[in-house]
Amino acid sequence: MSLRVFTILAIVFGYLGLIVAIGWWSSRRTRATMEDYHMAGREFGSLVLFASVFGANISAVTFIGIPGMAYHRGWVAWPYFVTAWGWLTPLLFHVVGHRAWQLGRRLNYMTIGEIIGGRWGSPYLTMIISAIIITYTIPYLMTGLIGAGVTLEVVTDGFVPSWVGALIVALVVVIYLTKGGMRASAWVNTFQTLVFLAGAVLMFVAVAMALGGPASATRRVMELHPELMSRGGMSMKQFFSYGLIVGLAVPLFPQVFTRLLTGKDPASLRKIITLYPPAALAVFFMMAYLGMWGRVAIPGLEGAQSDEILPRLLTAYTPFWMMGILAASVFAAMMSTLDAQLLAMSTILTREFLPRLPFIPNSERVQVRVSRGLVVVLTAVAYAFTLINPPGIISIVEFAFAGFAALMPAVLGTLYWRRCTKQAVAASAVLPQLVLVGLTFGWIDRSWTFGFLPGFIAIGVAVAVILIVTWMTPETENTDGYFLSPARAGGSEAPVHA
């Protein structure tokens, strides 16, 4: 082992040890109740709530997928992700998150499935929604482990194979998450968000200076690959499709949605709406430009190889001591999403599926132990999938994001439309997913997309289905009190008008 590799590993493992210590420290306040393990008592203030939501959303997609996409497609990778994300997602944090927070606080809801099924008192509708959520979370979950493995393999020149790097990150996350649940995850995410934000700036500055400055690096791109400064062959329909898909999908990521319910008051949620856009725009801008500059700095990467461009830039243009720090910041982004996804899926399974099994005792202490066990099982499943030569990260998330986005009409119909029926919500949740899968895998002719992405068509189908089926089915009674919400002040209850 060279001194360079030893130094990088020492820094990375020192960072991982610090993460475990923070997780164990925060776990001292965690009690063996479902509310505390999964929701941390719904007590988070603005800083922790922002860091946990933002950290749960900035993942391998940001530090591995976006630079990899920009390597081939250029500048357009930035607006491709943030055109709608910068304004539509924060707006939906308020529209969806505030209403869901009210219901969660009063009716003890923790998941999207509970909020939808709870309106009509339908456990079957709850399970349908949750099954869809889990289906799309598992491939998204894989991206964190893939990104961690790729990063450690490249910065150590292959000394640590990607499967070992992914395993190390998986074990670290399992240790602090099983111990402290949501509270450990949120406090770790708060630290990791600060680390990867600082790391992103440091990476951008270090690589830009090594390439002669941002202007010089961009000028070389314009000279050698001018197509990277345009839409890069991407049609406007595809560009528009993805902007809408990403904007609608983010609030329904289970790891994000659950955290929207953990704030101690609506004011904490409103502050997220202010802080989120500038932070997201800045991080995505830096990652997209690093990937684009990488095309001229390290040419010749093909296909999913471009997912390696950020760690390759670090290897080529930063001193090895800095490389260890920057690799740790990449790990921070990946783990902050990974732990949130694992906990969210554990919450869904424990709350909505396992209680229906006769051999699971109706005891909170037992359910918390089961939740911890599920974290281990889900991590093992996700890790196993990373070993079967998965496609590039962007290919994975484009499919997963579309699945989440297609659920938004059902969510909005449930939260705000009194006339909406459970049959309409069920059909609006299921039929668009069938269309999405059919178009994605070629079972439905791609000409039916009319040049848009399959996810855009699925969203359109969801809107049409919820309107038509609601019109065709009789109005049903809502669960008593569903449209009552706590008043913003005084603790009394006031109706929410749809």
Q: What can you see in these coordinates?
A:
This protein has 20 helices and two strands. By secondary structure, it is mostly helical. It has a single domain, classed as Sodium/glucose cotransporter (Up-down Bundle), CATH 1.20.1730. The N and C termini lie far apart (65 Å). The relative contact order is 0.17. Residues 485-498 have low confidence and may be disordered.
Please describe the topology of this protein.
Elements: H1 3-26, H2 34-39, H3 46-57, H4 60-73, H5 77-85, H6 88-107, H7 112-120, H8 123-155, H9 162-210, H10 214-224, H11 236-249, H12 254-260, H13 266-297, H14 309-317, H15 320-352, H16 364-386, H17 393-405, H18 408-416, H19 422-440, H20 454-472, E1 484-486, E2 493-495
Antiparallel strand pairs: 1-2
* Radius of gyration (Å): 22 Å
Strands of the widest sheet, in order across it, are 1-2
Give the low-pLDDT segments.
485-498
CATH topology: Sodium/glucose cotransporter
Summarize the biggest pleated sheet: 2 strands, antiparallel
Give the CATH architecture.
Up-down Bundle
Number of domains: 1
CATH level-1 class: Mainly Alpha
Tell me the number of strands. 2
Reading the helices and strands in chain order gives HHHHHHHHHHHHHHHHHHHHEE
- What is the H level of CATH, i.e. the homologous superfamily? Sodium/glucose cotransporter
Secondary-structure-derived class: mainly alpha
| DSSP helix fraction | over 70%
| Average residue-wise pLDDT | 85
**Oligomeric form of this entry?**
single chain
| Gap between N and C termini | 65 Å
Overall geometry: globular
Beta strand %: under 5%
Separate helix tally: 20
